[in-house]
C-alpha cells in the first residue's frame, strides 16, 4: 500500500478542519482607495487628490450553525482518513510479515540444498 499517499490524505483532511474552524472568526483585510476630484487640468493635483486606508472586517455571525456543520463534516472526513491510514499501515505490516516469512522459508531451503550438495559431494568422494 502507498503509506505516503494515505498520510498526505490524512494531513489534508486535518488541514480542512482548520480551514472550516477559521470560518468562525472574522476576516480582516486592509483596504486602500485613492480618488481625485476637480477639473481635468488639476488631475492628481495636491488639492484634488485624496486617499483612504482602513481595515475591512467581514464576519458571518448568524451563520455559525452551517460553519459548525462544516467543521463536523471535516472532522468526520479526518476520522475516515485516519481509519484508511491505519488500514494501510496494517496492510503494509501484513505484507512485510509475509515477505519475511517467505524469505525465511527460502533460507531454510537454501540450507537444506547446501547440506544435500555437501552430502552428495562427500558420498561421491567416498565412492
Automatic annotation (TrEMBL):
Q: Which family does it belong to?
A: Belongs to the outer membrane factor (OMF) (TC 1.B.17) family.
Q: Pfam families, per this entry? A: OEP
Which GO molecular function entries does the Swiss-Prot or TrEMBL record give?
efflux transmembrane transporter activity
Q: What is this protein called?
A: TolC family protein
Q: Which domain of life is it from?
A: Bacteria
Amino acid at each position: 500500500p502507498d503509506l505516503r499517499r494515505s498520510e498526505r490524505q490524512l494531513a489534508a483532511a486535518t488541514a480542512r478542519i482548520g480551514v472550516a474552524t477559521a470560518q468562525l472568526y472574522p476576516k480582516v483585510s486592509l483596504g486602500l482607495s485613492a480618488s481625485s476630484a476637480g477639473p481635468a487640468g488639476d488631475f492628481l493635483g495636491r488639492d484634488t487628490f485624496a486617499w483612504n486606508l482602513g481595515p475591512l472586517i467581514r464576519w458571518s455571525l448568524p451563520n455559525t450553525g452551517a460553519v459548525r456543520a462544516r467543521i463536523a463534516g471535516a472532522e468526520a472526513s479526518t476520522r475516515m482518513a485516519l481509519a484508511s491510514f491505519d488500514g494501510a499501515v496494517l496492510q503494509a505490516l501484513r505484507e512485510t510479515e509475509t515477505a519475511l516469512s517467505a524469505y525465511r522459508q527460502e533460507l531454510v531451503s537454501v540450507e537444506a540444498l547446501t547440506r544435500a550438495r555437501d552430502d552428495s559431494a562427500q558420498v561421491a568422494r567416498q565412492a
